[in-house]
Amino acid sequence: MSIILGIESSCDETAAAVYDSDRKQLLSNVVFSQIKLHEIYGGVVPEIASRSHLEKIDLIVQAALDKANISLDNINYIAVTNKPGLVGSLLVGLCFAKSLAFAKNKKIIGINHLKAHIFSSFLKVDNSIEDVPFPHICLSASGGSTVIYYVKNFGEYEVIGQTIDDAAGEAFDKVAKIIGFGYPGGAKIEQAAKIVDFQDFYKYPRTKNFTKTLDFTFSGLKTAVMYDLVKKNAYDLQNGPIFENITSELQNQVSSSLLVCIADIFQAKIELALKLYPDAKAVTFVGGVACNNYICDRLNSIVNNLGKKFISPVCRFCADNAAMIAFLGAQKAEQNQFSDLDLDVFK
């Protein structure tokens, strides 16, 4: 039996999970979110994040072991995120994992958590493993990264498109802050857009030639929203938002227009990717932005119409989590891709 303990602390979630690779079953997945600690600042504060990880990591790991009804002695391998992320936060998770590995004489596996997101699509709602066919197209979208991968197998994939500036999640968060929703903004923007039935009121630009390349750009979209709000006397270029002029109606319409625009861009990229890689058997949508039901529904519809399978994990596996770390760790263990105890972090 191969049991993997996964540990994730790259940003503002302290997470641990236990995965049984023989039974292909996730035995536990515990996450402590720091959103309440950071929302008053309008974003993640690295020092607060790392201190919170220090306070919680031993409790979270023990909770994951208890929920799996297993002890450290029964763990075969320890998989831990070592890149990319906030350096202080990564160090907490990595040092904790190294200490356990040394004390219990366990092998350790360093994991790039962005790569783990690629394979989070294999995690099903019942904690079993999805049979995702290879090759497939993976759209990974989060607060700090928007990438399209052509995935041939575990450990065999290539980047075929990526953002050249802001990520999609950044666009949601930055616009949410401009219109007074605060941090994090993605869920609030979808809720507001739903009120007005996801209409495209302001026709924000999709960028030139956006259907001819698989790369993304979202900084111009944020700027377009900002200048549109200047015209509506709801934003001052020197002083920022003019909140007394930002009505709930304006918030809803901006949110809806932004969401439809980003969904249009994603749809165009997936259509082009499937045209360029016709042998792809499926499309997966992963990362924090994949929690957005409207975008998921749009992509599901277009992918199914093109005769392909669409897979997106439930939200608890889209956000940063240790289940995907443990799962990818199991694949690396099968390939004997272990790390040394001098493993370091990389932001």
Describe the structure.
This protein is of the alpha/beta class and 347 residues long. It folds into 2 domains: 3-123 and 318-334, ATPase, nucleotide binding domain (Nucleotidyltransferase, domain 5), CATH 3.30.420.40; 136-312, ATPase, nucleotide binding domain (Nucleotidyltransferase, domain 5), CATH 3.30.420.40. The protein has 11 helices and 12 strands. Helix 2 (46-68) packs parallel to helix 3 and helix 5 (168-178) runs antiparallel to helix 8.
Q: Approximately what portion of the residues adopt beta-strand conformation?
A: 15-25%
Number of helices: 11
Q: Which architecture of the largest domain would the CATH scheme give at its second level? A: 2-Layer Sandwich
Annotated CATH homologous superfamily of the largest domain: ATPase, nucleotide binding domain
Total number of distinct structural domains: 2
> How many angstroms does the end-to-end distance come to?
34 Å
CATH topology label of the largest domain: Nucleotidyltransferase, domain 5
What overall geometry do the principal axes of the alpha carbons give?
globular
Q: Give the % helix.
A: 40-55%
Uncertain stretches of 5 or more adjacent residues: none
Would you tell me the overall average pLDDT?
94
Helix-strand category: alpha/beta
Radius of gyration: 21 Å
- The topology string of helices and strands comes to EEEHHEHEHEEEHHHEEHEHEHH
Features:
alpha/beta; Nucleotidyltransferase, domain 5; 2 domains; 5-stranded mixed β-sheet
Blueprint (SSEs and pairs):
Blueprint: E1 3-8, E2 13-20, E3 25-33, H1 35-38, H2 46-68, E4 77-83, H3 87-104, E5 107-112, H4 113-118, E6 136-141, E7 146-153, E8 156-162, H5 168-178, H6 186-195, H7 219-231, E9 235-236, E10 240-241, H8 248-276, E11 282-286, H9 293-305, E12 309-311, H10 315-318, H11 323-334
Parallel strand pairs: 1-4, 4-5, 6-11, 11-12
Antiparallel strand pairs: 1-2, 2-3, 6-7, 7-8, 9-10
Helix pairs in contact: 2-3, 5-7, 5-8, 6-8, 8-9
